[in-house]
Design brief:
CATH topology of the largest domain in chain A: Aldehyde Oxidoreductase, domain 4
Strand content of chain A: 15-25%
Distance between the termini of chain B: 52 Å
Structural class of chain B: alpha+beta
CATH architecture of the largest domain in chain B: Roll
Radius of gyration of chain B: 16 Å
Number of helices of chain A: 19
Helix content of chain A: 25-40%
Structural class of chain A: alpha+beta
Oligomer: heterodimer
Largest sheet of chain B: 5 strands, mixed
Largest interface: A-B, 59 and 60 residues
Helix content of chain B: 25-40%
CATH class of the largest domain in chain A: Alpha Beta
Number of domains of chain B: 2
Number of strands of chain A: 32
Strand content of chain B: 15-25%
CATH superfamily of the largest domain in chain A: Aldehyde oxidase/xanthine dehydrogenase, molybdopterin binding domain
Order of helices and strands of chain B: EEHEEEHHHH
Strand order of the largest sheet of chain A: 3-7-1-14-11-12-13
Radius of gyration of chain A: 28 Å
């Protein structure tokens, strides 16, 4: 029999075969008979009144069938839609556009090129309006209003913690450090852009929507809520998420293009394909970060942290189209007290509307955790340097101790488990920390700039417990449905959706561990709402904590029934049976055994009278708490004084995500996360000019790391299982994206602290750094 | 109306003929006319390399060429890598070393790797990284892609 490949096995991925042979099924690979193409006219202005849309010339282009405008959709009340945060978003504008590259009209044609010709032929008369780009200015009294339906540009205010106590501790503290930290707007830029094929079957009255979505079930419900009044009730909608070419949070929101394609398919009665090009993707899809944070950290004389305060102005663009749990407008930002033991903190946030596309969405991050971790890890480093202390020593003194878990944080979270000292000490050993400090001292004498940066992060992932977590009222459980076939093979379906994380392999391994059926005998399916059980999808590192747990619990339900069948087959009492992975045997007589495969066969051929036939189970798993993965990263940089370039010489990442299901896949997730952490630290930023023009709208300006800029990551692990997860696992897909940026920024500042540099906002690009070196008189100009 | 041209292109060992518009991109010819959908499109500025194919023995970005420029030429796509039901060493390498996650960049990445190994059968890590610098991957962080190429290099040496 094949190897079981349960927990801890680095089995090779089951999904690879189709991808390495060019047989993946991505959205743009889909071709349906009679399929039409949608292309979109977009606004060149960040804020403008639409005076007229002239479609006549476009309609004369060979192959163009229709031009759809906001006024057309308004007839069906489909010109707007709710966002996942219960805000409003235009599908197509009726009178004004609010950001550059906003959808203005849809052109439907028989071919991709004809649709593009049609877009070029549509003429729109705009009257430009004043633009609000800076969120601070947007919040000033008298600022131009971005939204006609709102009182002001303040989308919301959110706060948590004890304001008065924090004020008083900070006032009386021995040392207080203050810094304004900006994390700019960035974009996930998965290599596959977004797209869909909407296929309305008028005879059956059913819509099949193939789309690049990380959350197919939630999308189905939202569609039914938005378009139920025109006949799209939920049983008439099937959402299929095919192979996804990277998601990272960018494929959670509903973009207008999807809705226009659906409307076009329903109106015309043919399948309609919409595929974004890269420029559209980088200019119009949801963005991440854009947080302006004023942080203050206080410590006592002995160097113990006593309080943290962060006040943030967050730029949410023209609408709050994030996908945060609804009770958490600022996501899980309140994890900002980090890995440190102190009980006084306060944080507040004002979200501003501006003339930009929706912001505050994810970039491989569990709901604003990256922003929170960057703030606290930068502040802790500044405090250590300010006190003239080694940043590692300062952290080791202030960490929450292993025996304090479960730990109640100052802002209300119960950290499930942790051993922060072990992770940091391991990282220090791996990289040779004290030797590096000696080297740095030597180099500094010679005028060479070398820095060592640490980040000891705590994440909060796996949303989430139903008492607190929902999106549009739908509780954030997730699900698994497992059926064992008569021959002992299985099919398992889930409410999540892989975008490269390897679910087809890891979910099979969890079931393999629980039932002893080889992982290679278990087929995993996700993404089809007609077949998979309901779930909230894959983002925020939630799949393993929720659906992975459901796989485990559903397997155990199957094992319970299998035990009854085994007792019947072995003519033994249930209480006399012992489970050993893959079989039940009679206590004291290991020869009297029935394998899970024999039991499965009996479930269909020889089950006990009075028992239902079959062997299957469903579980909707409601996690009792979130999981709190953590780690310590150490980065060594050398700075080129001639160019301002930061060279990452070494980067050691010690991660603790509890039980590792497939260590090979976990390490791959960490490699990828580190690279998406380095990217915004050194390269990526979406930049707008004063008129709201996106200056970084293609891959020529928005720089993704290639193999050349990416260092050779070194990884290590500690294992602190989650006490409440059935197999002790925690999410891991985003840990490294969260942990890496402050390690890199801290390393660069560490190299320059002696010159009077306290902070540099990311991305630390060569021109930015070179200007600082020049100002400090250390740049080489020849 | 755009003029059309009759072209003849050998793709993965088979000759295909078609009448195409002058402006039809090679990548659309491959994907939509010939239905070889393993070659992907990831950008519109020749930056990402997802569309990389071999044209007359050289790796090219097929979004940056017109189909007519391949007239009379030989194209190899990811679908042409495996021979007689046996995976190419680069395909094996990507599977064995976990060199792919979402798989979207993988076909272009493998074609660039094959082109690199053709020119330089014994590349250093640095040379592999530069050799693949025209191909973006957002998932893997490249560490395992480098290992996959090293795996293939070893395998190809032992096979030759």
């Amino acid at each position: 029999m094949a190897e079981v490949n349960g927990l801890g096995s680095s089995m090779k991925r089951k999904e690879d075969a189709r991808f390495i042979q060019g047989k993946g099924n991505y959205i743009d690979d889909l071709k349906l008979p009679g399929m039409l193409y949608l292309d979109i006219v977009r606004s060149p202005y960040a804020h403008a009144k639409i005076k007229n849309i002239h479609s006549e010339a476009a309609l004369k282009v060979p192959g163009v069938l229709a031009v759809i405008t906001g006024k057309d959709l308004e007839k069906y009340n489909l010109h707007w839609m709710p966002t996942l945060m219960s805000d409003r978003q235009m599908v197509l504008p009726v009178d004004t556009v609010k950001y550059q590259a906003q959808e203005v009209a849809g052109v439907i044609a028989t071919g991709r090129y004809a649709a593009a010709d049609g877009v070029a032929a549509v003429e729109v008369d705009y009257e430009p309006l004043p633009v609000v780009v800076d969120p601070h200015k947007a919040l000033e009294p008298g600022a131009t209003k971005v939204r006609d339906d709102k009182e002001s540009n303040k989308a919301w205010h959110w706060e948590v913690g004890d304001r008065a106590a924090t004020d008083s501790v900070i006032k009386g503290a021995a040392t207080v450090v203050r810094e304004r930290i900006y994390i700019p707007r960035i974009h996930v830029a998965s290599i596959e852009t977004c797209g869909c094929v909407a296929d309305w079957n008028a005879v059956e009255g059913k819509l099949t929507l193939y789309m690049t979505t990380q959350a197919p079930h939630a999308i189905r419900t939202v569609l039914a809520l938005v378009a139920g009044h025109v006949g799209l009730s939920e049983e008439r909608i099937r959402v299929v998420s095919p192979d996804i070419g990277g998601g990272f949070g960018g494929k959670v929101p509903v973009y207008p293009g999807y809705v226009i394609a659906v409307a076009a398919s329903v109106l015309i009665g043919k399948p309609v394909k919409w595929i974004e090009d890269r420029s559209e993707n980088l200019q119009a899809d949801s963005f991440a970060r854009d947080y302006h944070m004023d942080a203050e950290l206080a410590a006592d004389k002995a160097g113990r942290i006593t309080a943290l305060r962060i006040k943030t102005v967050a730029d949410y663009g023209y609408t709050d189209a994030a996908a945060n749990p609804s009770k958490f407008p600022a996501g899980l930002f309140s994890i900002c007290t980090g890995s440190y033991d102190f009980q006084t903190a306060f944080t507040e946030m004002d979200a501003a509307y501006t003339n930009k596309p929706p912001g505050g969405v994810a970039y491989r991050c569990s709901f604003r955790v990256t922003e929170a971790v960057h703030a606290v890890e930068r502040m802790v480093d500044i405090m250590a340097h300010e006190r003239g202390e080694d940043p590692a020593e300062f952290r080791l003194r202030n960490f929450i101790k292993k025996d304090q878990f479960p730990y109640k944080s100052a802002l209300g979270w119960e950290y499930d488990s942790g051993d922060y000292h072990a992770a940091l000490r391991k990282a220090m050993d791996m990289i040779g920390y004290s030797e590096l400090r000696k080297e740095q001292t030597e180099k500094r004498k010679r005028g060479e700039l070398m820095g060592i940066g640490i980040s000891s992060f705590t994440e909060i992932v796996g949303a989430g417990p139903s008492h607190t977590f929902d999106i549009l009222g739908i509780k954030m459980f997730d699900s698994a449905e497992i059926r064992i076939h008569p021959t002992g093979k299985a099919i398992a379906r889930f409410g999540t959706k892989s975008q490269g994380q390897g679910h087809e392999t890891t979910y099979a391994q969890i079931i393999a561990e629980e039932l002893g059926i080889p992982a290679s005998d278990i087929k995993v399916e996700e993404g089809d709402t007609d077949t998979a059980p309901y779930g909230l999808g894959t983002y925020a590192s939630r799949s393993t904590p929720t659906a992975g747990a459901a796989a485990s619990i559903a397997s155990r339900k199957i094992r319970e029934k299998a035990k009854k069948i085994a007792a019947h087959l072995l003519e033994a009492a249930e209480e006399d049976l012992v489970w050993e992975r893959g079989k039940f045997y009679v206590k004291g007589s290991p020869d009297r055994a029935k394998t899970i495969q024999e039991i499965a066969f009996a479930a269909y051929t020889n089950h006990p009278q009075g028992m239902e036939a079959g062997l299957e189970a469903v579980d909707y798993y409601d996690p009792p708490n979130l999981t709190f993965p953590f780690g310590s990263y150490i980065c060594v940089v050398d700075i080129d004084r001639g160019t301002g370039q930061v060279k990452i010489r070494r980067f050691v990442a010690v991660d603790d995500c509890g039980t590792r299901i497939n260590p090979m896949i976990v390490e791959g997730q960490i490699h990828g996360g580190l690279t998406m952490g380095m990217a915004p630290a050194l390269l990526e930023q979406i930049i707008y000019d004063a008129d709201g023009n996106n200056l970084t709208g293609t891959f020529m300006e928005y720089l993704l790391p290639t193999a050349v800029e990416t260092p050779k990551w070194e990884t290590g692990e500690t294992v602190t299982p989650s006490p409440h997860h059935p197999i002790g696992a925690k999410g891991v897909g985003e840990s490294a994206t969260v942990g890496a940026p402050p390690a890199i920024a801290n390393a660069v500042v560490d190299a320059l602290w002696h010159l009077g540099v306290r902070h540099i906002d990311i991305p630390i690009t060569p021109p930015k750094l070179w200007a600082i070196l020049k100002e400090k008189g250390v740049a080489l100009e020849e | 109306m755009m003029s059309t041209h009759h072209i003849k292109v050998n793709v993965n060992g088979q000759t295909h003929e078609a009448d195409v518009e002058s402006r039809l991109l090679l990548v659309h010819f491959i994907r939509e006319v010939l239905n070889f959908t393993g070659t992907h499109i990831g950008c519109d500025s020749s930056s990402c390399g997802a569309c990389t194919v071999m044209l007359n023995g050289r790796n090219v970005k097929s979004c940056t060429l017109f189909a007519v420029q391949a007239d009379g030429g030989e194209v190899m796509t990811v679908e042409g890598l495996a021979q007689d039901g046996k995976l190419h060493p680069i395909q094996e390498g990507f599977h064995q070393e976990h060199g792919l996650q979402c798989g979207f960049c993988t076909p272009g990445m493998m074609i660039s790797a094959v082109a690199l190994l053709k020119k330089n059968p014994n590349p250093t890590e640095e040379e592999i990284r530069w050799g693949l610098s025209g191909n973006l991957c957002r998932c893997t962080g490249y560490v395992n892609i480098v290992k996959a190429v090293q795996y293939a290099a070893e395998k190809m040496k032992s096979e030759s």
